[in-house]
């Protein structure tokens, strides 16, 4: 049936919140706010430049949406937005893969809508194996993956398909707009972002440099090459997806597959791009609403290790230095994934770093030490989220990199990303250590590793945590106390 004839009210009403029920409980977003919206609500056109296409030369796509216990209202809006925002001739089918949700009817009922097909797993498989199942069932030449809580915007599909028609090795994502998890407001995202990561291998958005933004402003429709994709929303030629080894079927539930496919596509000769004329909104949330068989930390680490072990060559050691606890999580057999790498004659990770992600600081080139800076058994230096001009303190070591990831280089600087430890009030007792822009000529940023002390160069002051509670890490006259003993996870001390 056409989607307009679908019983939207009955479908959503059947799983409405019960009186007094916590709106966030089931989905970790405000279900009530979502249930109250129409399935074809209008959203702002967030594109900042317009383009036209010759639809007749574009390939059709199968849209694949996997879900586990998704709210009915967001799932329906995902489907309806695909049907209303795409040229009908380009949508071959919409394949919903129900990853063993509690209620099979969530999907079965949607199968009545035009073009919608539903496949149901008879046990929980996780998003990777579910997407493969959808891809294998697809009949169109291009696969388009979406999360189950998105809204496609005007002309989102044409520019994605056009890019793939030009180059079958291009793997393309839209700009991902933000659907607010509290009130479901649709907000345009910045067009100046691309995907990246630190050595903890957790996805993050990187802001383009000023120079690059200037260069782009004269031609904003050019695809943005991205070192990593967020993972949920992208289109890819189906035969290329198969040729490059689909996904790693030994990964479970969630996480790591976006890192793996990003390394794989780039290293095996393809490209990852964000297409700025394509916009799709996504409900970003802070917690997983579903269970994680095996434990979320373990599963995520195992998946990430599989990606690192197959694709990163010796550079994986920086990951293990940033996340030492990862070594304890077994990652299983990776022989068939290594075979894919050999078969496609994929390039080494050093090539990826030099050509795709030169912005990622490689500690090896310049670092003497790297990782977290530990004191005693369990305390680590932590930026506590502070940025430029902020101080640093101590926090329980979490071995997950991030705010506890530092490197010491040959210039004797202790760096966190672009910032350097600086004796903020000069070379004197009690001078607070601050995060400031790195400058090789600044002698207040040079530290010597002397046994386990970190001594301000040519001074008698050492990094000391004894006043950590009041002012953070400070300089104090070097002595043998425990509060001046530091150890990097990797390197000299
Ligand atoms: C992001 C990606 C997501 C995926 C993930 C890393 C975006 C917008 N989202 O997380 O697609 O790449 O990073 O793995 O880029 N699901 C299942 N079975 C499961 C668990 C999840 O089918 O066992 C579904 C889930 O219903 C959803 C999709 O997989 O449709 C992604 O899960 P998410 O929305 O919780 O992940 P997200 O957006 O935090
Ligand atoms: Mn999602």
UniProtKB/TrEMBL annotation:
Main location: Golgi
Pfam families in the record: Glycos_transf_2 (PF00535), Ricin_B_lectin (PF00652)
Lineage top rank: taxon: Eukaryota
Membrane-related topology note: Single-pass type II membrane protein
Molecular function in Gene Ontology: carbohydrate binding; metal ion binding; polypeptide N-acetylgalactosaminyltransferase activity
Keywords, in A-Z order: Disulfide bond, Glycosyltransferase, Golgi apparatus, Lectin, Manganese, Membrane, Metal-binding, Signal-anchor, Transferase, Transmembrane, Transmembrane helix
Cofactor: Mn(2+)
Enzyme Commission number(s) of this protein: 2.4.1.-
Location in or out of the cell: Golgi apparatus membrane
Recorded GO CC terms: Golgi membrane
Pathway(s) of this molecule: Protein modification; protein glycosylation
Classification via PANTHER family: N-ACETYLGALACTOSAMINYLTRANSFERASE, POLYPEPTIDE N-ACETYLGALACTOSAMINYLTRANSFERASE 2
The protein's name in its UniProt record: Polypeptide N-acetylgalactosaminyltransferase
